[in-house]
Amino acid sequence: MADCLFCKIANKEIFSYIVYENEKVLCFLDILPLARGHLLVIPKNHAENILHLKEEDLTAVFKAAKTMTKKLFKALKPDGFTIGINHGKISGQTIDHFHLHIIPRFKGDGGGSIHSVVKSSLAKNFLTEELESVRVKIIKVK
Ligand code: AMP
Ligand code: ZN
Fold this sequence. Notes:
HIT family, subunit A, five-stranded antiparallel sheet
């Protein structure tokens, strides 16, 4: 897509610290890393989010994520990883080209778990009946 930063990175019109690529995906270091080795996995084809990703690109992204997690583990010896996707503005998505963050985690890095990204009391107080009504809503969708 013409005005997309990550399309430009995928097409090598803009420099990035590339660590891996194949026909379908590009992996490069996040320019404002949250940790040593924080990288992004993107499909070379433009897609705003997971709902727009073609199946073959989705598969390629998650295969590359596994490859990169293995490489990061060997290269930097982190204690763990947080792997995640910001989907939509509310979640913090700032670039409308799908990207998967792989963030190496180190003891004492001060970060939290995925559970710390939502702070509403609602999220902490779901009752069993609410879980059931949510389950029914989801399974009704064709
Ligand atoms: P998100 O908030 O999930 O949309 O994440 C976008 C990420 O892209 C941020 O972590 C940025 O630091 C990163 N980013 C923005 N511009 C560049 C760039 N030119 N090269 C590498 N990473 C970038
Ligand atoms: Zn794009």
